[in-house]
Design brief:
Layout: H1 5-13, H2 15-26, H3 36-48, E1 55-56, E2 62-66, E3 74-80, E4 94-96, E5 99-101, H4 105-125, E6 133-139, H5 149-158
Amino acid sequence: MELTQDILQYIEEHAEEAYELLITLAQIPAPSNHEERRAAFVRDWLVAQGARGVDIDEALNVVFPINCEGEGPIRVFMAHSDVVFPDEQPLPLRQEEGKIFCPGIGDNSANVVALLMAMKYLAQTGLSPTDGGVLLVINSGEEGLGNLKGCRALMERYGRR
């Protein structure tokens, strides 16, 4: 899919929403193997945006399948939800001179927000590939202690596709 004028306009019109989502998401603790709160927030946010079929799997991946029925090929887009910080208290965030400082904000909260906004766009426009499915995933357990738990679970379930 190319960046059409509609998509570029959507990005511009939703920049403030994405910024606010980043502020909210970044403060939700998500140490590897304990991403439950962040996963629940992501699922609930996506459902509120009109996404259908969103689920949290056994590995704590938030999965949004589009046109994935059957046995055909699928494309997977992921951003990981966990951070390397073990604390389960809200993560400290400060804003200074137009910059946001928070543990895990660049790895990987900002990428999660980018994928969430794309997921919202797809949910609200109903765009769907005709040559296979798309699996959009906020995956768990990517950081060291997570040992790629979320990716491994996805490969076990969808790897042959």
